[in-house]
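Students often ask why inverse folding is considered easier than folding. One informal answer: many sequences map to the same fold, so there is more than one right answer. In these notes we will look at a single instance of the problem. The structure comes first.
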């Protein structure tokens, strides 16, 4: 949380502590926190004193020596079941913001959307630096340059921002998504929507993707194969909560792509949308550059921190009363939906099922 967001808490007489140097990479220095009324302390002191600990990634149970702690972050609990069990054994209450129900009311707290927006934007910029040609069409005295053809797999928040950014750079954009409902949104941004009939209904999945039938996957594979063969840039964003990312681009498809083409795989943290992807690595395969990066938002630390902090700031009132005391209202679907561990037990049914 940047100083500007923390200031709104200190103005309510809430004691806010920040780890020394925590904001440096986001260009928010200790001095700014102090000016906002925040106390700058060492990590160990904060963990000992704080009732609520805000972070992004997981924190080792060994550091949390008080069972009454509430921790809030992005923990990917469906992939970190063992850690959730450890938190439960230690009596820690865990809220994982990536599991927040994606309802209209939750939009101001939706960390997946705020970070995916940045990732989609940055994915196109990274692709433009790796791609050995221009993005826009250019008419020069030395000849004409054709515009780059960009294929985006997945029209969620990241995909839609990638469409808008690629169009601004002058590319021709095609988009594939398993949800026919996003067609209108894709076309409104000036991209062509690739349709595959027979998609499973995702309307009850709370804004997340769902697994598809084998027949659909076959037809999907055929369509994607044709599109990747023509594409210069492919940006993949397809992820399904709790499972390995689906393989959308096979080795054969990559081999049939133009030499010098680029794939930016945003699903790298959960295995990637290609079998070649390696998270946080850029590799070359049959003349195609494949960049696996699941933390592109982290390459724009100021804005990602600003948006993440605002998301958390909007969530905190749900677990506090008007006197700023901690009060967990389990009748609130956002509170119960985001809570993974409470009262020394796993609180989320999906995690319980994985344990069984």
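Output (designed amino acids):
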């Amino acid at each position: 949380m940047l100083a500007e967001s923390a200031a709104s808490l200190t103005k309510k007489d809430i004691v806010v502590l920040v780890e020394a140097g925590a904001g440096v990479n986001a260009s928010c220095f200790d001095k700014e926190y102090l000016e906002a009324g925040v106390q700058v302390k060492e990590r160990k002191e904060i963990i000992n004193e704080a009732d609520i600990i805000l972070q992004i990634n997981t924190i080792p149970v060994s550091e949390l020596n008080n069972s009454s702690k509430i921790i809030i972050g992005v923990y990917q609990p469906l992939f970190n079941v063992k850690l959730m069990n450890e938190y439960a054994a230690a009596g820690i209450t865990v809220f994982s913001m990536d599991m927040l129900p994606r309802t209209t009311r939750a939009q101001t707290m939706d960390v997946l959307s705020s970070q995916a927006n940045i990732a989609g934007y940055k994915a196109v910029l990274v692709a433009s630096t790796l791609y050995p040609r221009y993005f826009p069409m250019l008419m020069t005295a030395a000849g004409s340059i054709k515009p780059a053809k960009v294929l985006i797999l997945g029209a969620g928040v990241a995909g839609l921002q990638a469409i808008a950014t690629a169009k601004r750079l002058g590319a021709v954009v095609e988009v594939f998504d398993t949800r026919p409902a996003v067609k209108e949104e894709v076309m409104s941004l000036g991209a062509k929507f690739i349709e595959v009939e027979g998609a499973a209904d995702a309307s009850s999945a709370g804004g997340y993707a769902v697994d598809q039938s084998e027949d659909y996957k076959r037809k999907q594979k055929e369509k994607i194969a044709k599109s990747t063969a023509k594409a210069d840039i492919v940006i993949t964003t397809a992820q399904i909560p709790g499972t390995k990312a689906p393989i959308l681009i096979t080795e054969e498809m990559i081999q049939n792509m133009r030499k010098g083409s680029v794939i930016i795989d945003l699903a790298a943290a959960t295995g990637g949308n290609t079998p070649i992807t390696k998270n946080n690595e850029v590799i070359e395969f049959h003349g195609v550059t494949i960049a696996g990066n699941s933390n592109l938002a982290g390459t724009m630390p100021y804005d990602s921190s600003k948006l993440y902090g605002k998301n958390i700031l909007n969530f905190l009132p749900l677990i506090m009363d008007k006197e700023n005391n901690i009060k967990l209202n389990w009748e609130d679907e956002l509170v119960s939906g985001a809570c993974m561990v409470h009262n020394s037990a796993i609180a989320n049914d999906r995690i319980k099922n994985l344990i069984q």
